[in-house]
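Question thread 4412

I'm putting together a teaching handout and wanted feedback from people who do this every day. The idea is simple: show students a protein as raw sequence, then show them the structure tokens that encode its fold, then repeat with a second protein so they can compare. Below is the first pair exactly as I plan to print it.
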Amino acid sequence: MVFIAHISDLHVGSVNFEEDLLIKALYDINDMHPDVTIVTGDITENGYYLEFEKAAKYLDMIKSPMLVVPGNHDARHVGDECFEELIKERYGVLNVKKHGLKVIGLDSSEPDLDFGKVGRSQQRWMENELENAGGDHLYKIIALHHHIIPVPRTGRERNVLSDAGDILQSVINGNADLVLSGHKHMPHVWMMENTAFVTAGTVSSLRLRGKELSSFNTINIEEDFIEIILNRADGTRRCLAKYENTCKVID
């Protein structure tokens, strides 16, 4: 069994950022003892150095192995340089060999723009990493900030990946098992062929749609099934999706 925590859209530095919500979520995640925590971007509001310093301190509270990718807000005001200095590389791989798991992180941000793009060079790199993971019989997770498939209840579609079609084709052809994203502050799961596309809500911002609450996702990967759970700020939990595990490589 593998247990994954997925958080997104901290927005440290925003007037809508709620520190108490973030700290409670981080304590809750640590109490759950995930095998890996994945953070899908917008850890800051404006990409300022001081915001990254604060965000880095919060992320240091996470006790599990962690992969962090940047979002569009993190790419503002030369934030890409701050991200690389204070967080880590903007894209890369996290191997959790004990559990036969490979997380491929992508940088979908563009400087000072809200829309996203993966680009051809990163796309080829991702395709190679998926192929290698398949050869090693690993469970394959893609993590990026921008959603590849439009998310319901988020209004007019403006900020999907500009190369979404190409990336979607590569993800499906590469038999990715999970695609994790954020950006829209609306939790949702799409199933396409054997891939689950999971969007997280915002973990600590009050920029919410309708009656949604701040939240984070957890993912249980069992031998026979996979369950994706929404964990809301009020302590309630709800199953977003439960489906058969067709990838029998998880220990």
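The second pair follows. I'd like the answer to focus on this one:
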Amino acid sequence: MFRLGDRPRQREVREADERNYINDTDLSSMLTHIELLGLPAKQTRTVVRDARRVELAGLGHPAVMRAWLIQAMTGRRASEVLMMDFEPLSDIPGLDAAAVPEGGMVARLRYQQTKIDTAPNTILVGRDVVEIIREQQVWVREHWHLGPADTIRYLFPKTTGNRHGTKSWETSNYNHVLKDFSHHLDLRDSHGEFLLYSRSHRLRHTKATTLINAGAPIHVVQRYLGHLSPEMTMRYAATLASTAEREFLALAKVGRDGREIGMDRRDMLDLVQLDRRTDRILPNGYCLLPPTRSCDKGNACHGCDHFATDRTFLPDIQRQLAETQSLVATRQARHTERYGDPMTGANVWLEQRNAEIRSMQLEIVALEAQPTDSTAVVRGAGVLGRTGYQDTANTSDSQGASRS
């Protein structure tokens, strides 16, 4: 009991802010372009900006690139990664790492718990994180002229004024490099806003939200993030309206390559509340956008991650595929007649049409494989129908992991 006015003030728990969450599309785009940060300044890479292809030079910061990737994959704070020991990995007792299938945990990572003294400071990681750490160790040994068995204090040592490697990268310098890279790349999010790699703490919020939306118990996520209380963890759990649809699709493990979502279309209609939004019923399928959101893609449904369809729409998709292929052939003939040369794959219009064609072909293959009376819904081919994603689709699925 307390006298009036003497009651201890309870710490206010801040609500999760969706702006701290990076959606799958934006994170995938950031991961796709992060290689430019580590590329030597003398090398260039082609990126698409405002539907135009431009050549950008690398920034020559491979260590910063690897630190950011570790943040994205593990949800660690920047300081926890930058201050890691040179050898932060250890074996998991009783585990044969060589026998672990792709996507499994193969090692224990020790990071520097820089915020809470008594909080955990280890997590389990997969081969992707282990490979990044090994690459960084090789890079450090080359730059500090170390022998195969030699080590220094930090995995991410400061590159100037640090002859003996006793100083780590500072977060201020790290963020400065990431900010310069963001402006150099000029990458925009799905809403057209500037994407800042230097806001790397968003990766921690994103990792927490992804784990919770995938069904991980809150105490497991709490341990993984190194928190002392579940209240701290829930501040990161942005389980908002716009992530509810992503949760459903992530758990289905389908989607973007035309495989079955694994539910009846009648259940799917209830899920996305199509009775309230008739504009979600399309001529060739369904739009899975949450009812509170509007579409800004026009009629480019086959290239959209929110598109789904079923066997009843198979004739419509087959007809649309034939019409698109005919349109491409006509435009290519006119281009050759006018300019004397065929339209190349670098043409933005042709690239978009080819992506739609690949997506529709994947959808048709999936739908034709179903029984004629099937009511199962399949996800549109989406991003895996785009150029550059075809060869990596099977690899990503076999690993059972996404880069979010």
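Top answer:
Good format. For the second protein you could add a caption like this: The chain has a mean pLDDT of 76. DSSP finds 14 helices and ten strands in the chain.
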